[in-house]
Structure prediction request, 420 residues.
Amino acid sequence: MRYVIIGNSVAGLSACEAIRANDKDSAITVISDEPFFAYSRPLLSDYITGHVKIEDDRFHYRRAAFYDNLNIERMLGKKVRQVDTKNKKIILDNEAVEYDRCLIATGGTPFVPPNLKNSDIEGVYSFTNLTYALELEQALKIAKKIVVVGAGLIGAKLAEKLSLNGFDVTIVELTNKVLGLALDVPASSIVTGQMIKAGVNVITGDSVSEIMGTKKCEGVVLASGKKIECDIVVMAIGVKPNVTIAKASGIAINRGLAVSETMQTSVKDIFAAGDVVELYDKVFQMNHPIPIIPWASVCGRIAGENMSGGYKIFEGGFPVNSISIGNASFISMGYAETPEDCQEYVNDKRIDEGIYKKIVVKEGAIKGAIFMGEIERAGMVSAMIKDNIDVSSFAERIVEDGFWWHSLERTLREKLTRRV
Prediction:
């Protein structure tokens, strides 16, 4: 048996571990277009601003010893052009690799609005991998003014870090609030306050329609007509599944790669996991990409298990977001804003201290949560969402100060702690 893993991050490496647990001897080959050992994408903003180095252990998910100990062949810095599903070969630029079972874990690719004028000129950067970060690092050596497009998790953190490092930073967000998909208005206002405190100029409800300059970035024009001078524009709108290889291989694609509950694609012996796939969302009750690290790890492990003779299924996930901006740390899950057919339970008594708690409930089950400032109970609530626990009798207590595991009835506590 020969296993080939396309992608060298969380999903791919989790699959390798699961495969090797079941199959000690068969060949495993990891192919990645980047030449680096697996690293932490959430730490890229810390790398750019000098708070972490590539050499630091915490920057890397795995080092060379991981691959050596599991007897994994590395083909790093190699670009896959196609998966030849008929002949079971991975086609690279100048060679081909045979496989018996293959995992596509190619992650996401930066989203750039197709109608954005001059988005390809010098000074416009994406920020989703180390290759892009190294390019941006060089540009920052002579830059003074920066516009970050998109106030999601990546953009907000990067803007804060760059501003604290002395750059003149403006962040532009299309929606009416920072971290719009992760937070509601009160929680977002706490983060916005921290960003402003860090020196970031925050613009919401507007978008960049044009990059000014002919060969090199000189500034941006917003949809509102406002012009902002800058040396660099960082596109941090988000990512979309990197399905290029699958398109060329005839594998079924919706918004991301379509997979079964075993992570099998539409083609026999081809599996997929991570940001490239779409998953069943237990909260929204639909399939869509959920590009977060924990689910990439879970689904990579499930794929590896099923590729190597075991059997596991993915029961469904939901969006989970976590970040710290200044003194504001939060975890959010599922719905951020409360739909009309749901109830919300809020504790905003200490919002001036940056502490805010909220859950969203539908038909007795939690469908969303935000914990800002005091995040310890997030794991407990996550377990309630996973198990679809009926919280009708104690929902309002969940957001109260002091509510914790001991507040739950014993049998429920025991059930949930097994989950966590």
About this structure: The mean pLDDT is 94. Residues 111 and 300 are 24 Å apart (CA to CA). The radius of gyration is 22 Å.
